[in-house]
């Protein structure tokens, strides 16, 4: 099995597209970092953070004077005033645009790019063998088809994990070099009181929850690529469902069946910060159970199709 994985890994890195994906991931980290640094310097030249907070307080108070505001809007502006007043009273500038933690919080959203590149790999790692005819030579080895497919699946996830590490490490290095550790704090309203956020634990939790969509999208692309032997269909269909999944769930939200569709549960980040699903009576344990069931179904279909397919045709 180890030799099969090593062989798949070598084949993966012999493709120019693999290197291009890594380079693109690094590029989309560097460009926003440079832009953020530019505007940080510009905003620093315009005035101190204390002046900006005072202006924010004045602006929010003016908004509160509007009698047409809804109750939710009033609560929002009152909370913003409370946060600004806390910063001024405790000498606690925001890290929003000027710290390692805030920059890494921003780049954590790029996990969608990691997912996209892993989906591309999952979609083509099996289908490309059939399109080029190399699958015949691969299956002549004294290894079962199940082991061959498993090696491809594990290689795909290893590549995705590598991209995740690249995202985190490059973001950390770039953020530290350009912004430093930072001395400010992030604030939030908890039970009506201003509290400092646990930035690093929140960031780690965000990465963990992002794994739901990453795993399910990868398995689905792997399924389509294995069954239909078309990488373009697998990539297109997976991306279509990823970007339109929210709309599909909203359209079906009036029906009970929506609770049992994997698209409803794949975005586990909806449970961040004490949040919940838009669907009533849906909790994280229920979402994890549904995703686990679908993951098993995807794998069963992938393996069954691959092991029964006639490769001599």
From TrEMBL:
One Pfam family from the record? ABC2_membrane_2
| TM region(s), chain numbering | 20-39, 110-132, 153-183, 203-225, 232-253, 286-306
* UniProt keyword annotations, A-Z: Membrane, Transmembrane, Transmembrane helix
Give the highest taxon in the source lineage: Bacteria
This protein is called ABC transporter permease
